[in-house]
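ARCHIVE CARD
Drawer: 12
Card no.: 0347
Subject: one protein chain, sequence and derived structure
Cross-reference: see card 0346
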Amino acid sequence: SITNYCHFPFFLFPFIFFLFPFIFSLPAQGQTSSLLNQLNQLRSKCPDPCPGDTLRVSVLLKIIESINDDNVWPIYNQQVIEICKKNISDASENLVLFYKKSYAMALNNAGYLNDLRGNIPLALSFYQKAMDIHQSIGDKQGLAICYNNLGYIYNNQGKISNALEYYQKSLDLF
């Protein structure tokens, strides 16, 4: 019979399913804590304005990706927007590209947040701004993400032909 080949204690399934989310969130929590420590160290070593803002933006973007709380990560996202807006005009050519790409990523995040909160017109506005920046700097991956997000909104609105158009645009870039 099959029990001869499978010696797993099935009575543990309820416990495993209960612990599953906690087990896989521990590394993310540790990473977030480490990133927050890095951010605090950067702030203490280099107050605003700081020549090390590129590192600060990079750490903030990683923090945003590691936090699942929609009431917390937008605070860090707003910091990215502010730092990038402040630095885009004064940065060297290479850094301008970094700040524009980071700014567009933060705008995309703001679009996502507004979509979650049901403010679709504002979400579309943020996605459009992010898309324009990604297009202007030739960032195909960022542009594909924006197209995908626009497709998602149109799909949820029942505008299937618009959704398919944006999904196809996204796929064409990969």
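Annotation on reverse: The helical segments are 13-45, 53-66, 73-88, 93-116, 120-137, 140-156, 160-172. The radius of gyration is 21 Å.
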